Amino acid sequence: MTGQQLKISAVAIPSALDAGTGPSAGGTGGVMDFHVCHALREKHELEKWGDLDRCPTAMESLEYWRGNEYEDRLLFIAQLGQQSVGTCSVTLPLRENTYTAGIMVDVAAAFRRQGWGRRLLEHAEAVAAENGRTSLDAYCELPAGPVENAARLIPAKSGAGGLPADDPAVAFAARAGYELEQVERASRLTLPVPANQLDALEMEASARATGYVLVGWSDTCPDELVAEYAVLKNRMSKDVPIAGLDWEAEDWDPARVRQEEQSNSRSGVQCQVAAALHGSTGKLVAYTVLNWRPGIPASIAQQDTLVSSGHRGKRLGLLIKAANLRAAQHRWPAARSVLTWNAVENRHMLAINNLLGFKPAGYEGEWQKRLG
Questions:
Q1: Could you tell me what percent of the chain has a pLDDT over 90?
Q2: 186-200, 205-219, 233-247, 316-330 — which is least confidently predicted?
Q3: Mean of the per-residue pLDDT values of the chain
Q4: Measured between alpha carbons, how far is 9 from 79 in angstroms, rounded to an integer?
């Protein structure tokens, strides 16, 4: 480590990407710092993946770092003189999981292995502790090849999967006292999926999923379904495998659904949803979501997929995913792939994705550290 003084400053989030100076815009420093942070994130993504498929656009970042009534989000930039060393951030849930904090550290390539990452992590952890948080979570994502060919893995505490012990990010987290709770597989599906392949999958699924009606929407859930959609989103936060992570279920209601939709709209994210109604009760019992950004037109992100517990084992998951892929390909013809993430232990959803043609594209480690 050099003798230079590292300055870590909170980033004032501007009111717009092209905001001028002044308090309402976060000042000149706020605008510049925000853009520097986003540029560092883009550079990191390009170094690791060679594309920006996993990277938020500038509009998404602006919307995200504003925070909302459900989560405070604090972004910091580290500088040595005029040089930007890296960033760290702290996310603070406000409605549930109020004892937890999300931690992220990113150091520019030229400044790695000099102790600055540790300084940034200590700063983020101190901010979390000052806000009364006792359980910290973080993640890192690696390409598939280095994980699948690693000589030695640190196993996840979930009992499924692991990450290379000699990877710098993995070693950094382990040395800092974080435990690898869970590993998720990132998978990629090449588009377009041929229509006859989707036809065959939908026919196979429909033979089992009798007594259901498919519905779908773009961007905004119909008013008559939003309350039931909120119930399913609440259930999603309970049912997704979380291994030993200290996460409580999220409390969703129609207002929270609408807030998410409005946030997506402001950030330029378009959403396509396919869902299933139970024919005899009219209840919404399954849904799946795909997101697309015009700034990264070749990539679609698979978000939630849920089938209510009483309706599983009937190929509903495959049916709604195939239907949503068909709708997405029609709506976003420029897309060339879909990315999705699933816990390695979530064998059922991975099997559905494999049927659709998804292939391993990376692995994400979910880390946790308990304070005190």
A1: 91
A2: 233-247
A3: 94
A4: 8
CB–CB of 105/117 below 8 Å?
yes
Phi, psi of 195 (to 5 degrees): -60, -40
Under a CB-based contact definition with an 8 Å cutoff, are residues 108 and 346 in contact? no
Q: What is the pLDDT of residue 23?
A: 43
Task: Provide the Cα torsion 55, 59, 65, 66; round to 10°.
Answer: -160
* CA atoms within 13 Å, Cβ hemisphere of 136: 26
Query: What mean pLDDT is predicted for residues 118-139?
Result: 98
- Residue 27: pLDDT band with limits 50, 70, 90: very low
Q: How many angstroms separate the CA atoms of 359 and 140, rounded?
A: 20
Residues sharing a CB contact under 8 Å with residue 282, sequence separation 6 or more, in sequence order: none
* CA distances in angstroms from 190 to 109, 242, 301, 324, 336, listed in the order given: 31, 28, 12, 15, 6
In Å, how far are 50, 151, 270 from 63, measured between CA atoms? 25, 41, 14
**Helices of type H across 13-143:** 27-49, 58-65, 116-130
Half-sphere exposure for 79 (CA within 13 Å, toward CB): 14
Cα gap 173→143, rounded to integer Å? 17
Residues 21-25: contacts with CB within 8 Å, 24+ apart?
none
CB 14 within 8 A of CB 34: yes
Q: Residue 29: what pLDDT? A: 54
Give 5's DSSP letter: P
Question: If residue 212 lies in a helix (H) or strand (E), which one and from where to where?
Answer: strand 212-218
Which pLDDT score, from 0 to 100, does residue 337 have? 98
